[in-house]
Structure formats: structure tokens, C-alpha cells
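[09:14] KT: can someone run the structure on this one? pasting the chain below
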Amino acid sequence: MIRTSIFLIFSLSAICHIYSQEPDTSATGDSTLIVAEDQEAELAYNRGIEQFNTKNYQAALSSFDEAISIKPDFAKAYFNRGSVRMEVKDYDGAIVDFDAALQYDASMTNAYFLRGRCKESANDTEGALQDYNIAIEKDLKEAKVYYYRGVIKFQKEDYKGAIEDFTQAIYIKNDYAYAYNDRGSAKRKIEDYDGAINDYKQAIRIDPKMAFAYNNMGSAKRKKGDFKGAIEDYNLAIKMKPDYYVAYNNMGSAKYEMEDYEGAIKDFEKAIEIKNDYAYAYNNIGNAKFKLRDYEGAVKALDKAIGINANYGYAYMNRGNAKEMLRDNKGACSDWKKAKELGVKNVEAFIYQCN
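[09:31] RB: done, C-alpha cells below
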């Protein structure tokens, strides 16, 4: 009997790319020049500002070091040195500087935000969330602080909280394409597909070349069963970004759901052509070949998926299904048991027939 419980893996965007996370341009520093005659600290500080603005970061660090050595309570110098350290990815050093800036001038609320960005970049999401909360409590009216707090809430699966923060970011900055995209992804997570599509459209209106917004909109349409609309969006994503292997995989998934298995395989193969270690696409080829009754081809594709990711539970389960069709019951049972070890619950329905 042909199994119907074949699990096609949909990569909705690349995780992460469900939310986009805009490029980090937070560390802009405080570009205010200080004019004071015969003040060596201020002269060094001003020189550091000019060097920072021309991206001469090492020279800027030296200038801010000099300013601080002359004037140890120079809050703005600490703030800007922290901003430079952010740019060179010295997050621990930047956090120390933002701490010092706040010690000497507690009104520098942007330091809480930038310190939070450093903590988030260093994978301290709880510390980052605390700093974003403080910045907002202290009335920092910056769209980015709400946006990045929304990103953390999204990652913590607090989708309604994320939507609230992305909405506030959009209220402050109404052309915030990333916030529209990510709010759309949060809405998609709570199955508000129409709301998600509207947000992706807004993101695209603001930035017509935002490839991942087309990809995400396609995934929302696919969830609604609008497979043709989804394919159109995936094609547009690929037009914007020709090496977008995730969009090829997603387009193949839409074709699979339309029972166009040959077309799906071509798209999965294109994804692999771009990224040859893309285990999801090999798994999906295996599933499409299973549907075409090419069980040997399915096993070969699933072998490759497992070769790339030895802990890919669904690939073991699917390979077991294909082996069963080839009358390799021992091999099927071995794969199903491995899938169960890896936490795949659906495989229980198959294992009962194994000794």
C-alpha cells in the first residue's frame, strides 16, 4: 500500500528569513562636534568624529582613546568609541563603553539601544530585550528600537507582541519596509494570511527590489491555496535575486502541491545547483519522485539529504516509506526507527508493523 504521509519540507524563507532583520546600521555615533578653545580632549574627540564619519575606524578609536585619557568622564567620547567598536564587531568592548557613557550621562537613552544591539549580536537576547525595554521606558522615540524588540519577540514566538512592536516602528517611520515585511511574517505565523499579504505588498511598494518580501508573500499565498499566485511571487523573487535557492525550493513546493511533480523536481534541482548542500531540496526531490513511483530515485535523493544532515528525521521517515515500496522491509523499519529516535512523531503509524 502506498503511504500518504510523505512530509515535504517547506523552507518558508531563508530563518530565518521568515523575518528579515534589516542590515545593522545602528552604530551611527553622535556626530556633534564640540568646539572649545585649547581643550585637548575636545580636539581629539572632534578628530575622532571626522575619522568615524570617513570610516577610518582604527584612527577614530585612537582619537577617542586620547579624548578619554585626558577627560575620563567624557560621556560622548565613550558613546562614540562604543559605536566604533560596534562597527568592528568588538561587542564586549562596545558594551563596556556604553556602560561608561550611561554612568557619566544617564540621559543618553540611545546608549541603551546600542548596548542592546551589541548584546543581541553576541547572542544575549535576554540582555538585549532588557535594554530595548529600558530605552522605550525612557521614551527613546526611535523606530529601530521597536523593530529590534519585535524581532526578539518574533524569535520567542510572541507573534502578537512582535506585531505590536512592528506596528509602532511603522507609526514612527511609515516607510519602514523591513518592519512591514516582518509584521507580515508575524501575521503569517498566526494564520492571518490576508493581513500578511497586505504587509508584504506595503514592503514591496516601499522597496520594489526586496526579494525576500516577494518570497514571503508567495508563501502566504501558498498557505491560502493560491498556488499560481505563489509561483508568480517566487518567480519575481528570483528575478530580483537570481541565486535565491530558497525561492526555487518554495516554488517547487507550490508545484508539488499542484501535483506538478516533474516541474517541482526541476525547481528543487535548481535550488541544489545554487546550493549543493541544501538537504531540504534533496528531501523534496525524494518526495516528488515517490509520487512519480520512482522509488529507487527517491531513495537516492533521500540518501543525499541524510548524507548532508545525519539528524534529518523526516528524511529517514520518507526513505523508509520508499524502501517499503521496494520491498526492503528491513531497511524501511531501520529508517523509521531512526526517525523516531530523532523525534519524528508521525512515524509511529509505520513502526507498528516492524518486529
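[09:33] KT: thanks! DSSP finds 19 helices and no strands in the chain.
[09:34] RB: yep, looked fine to me
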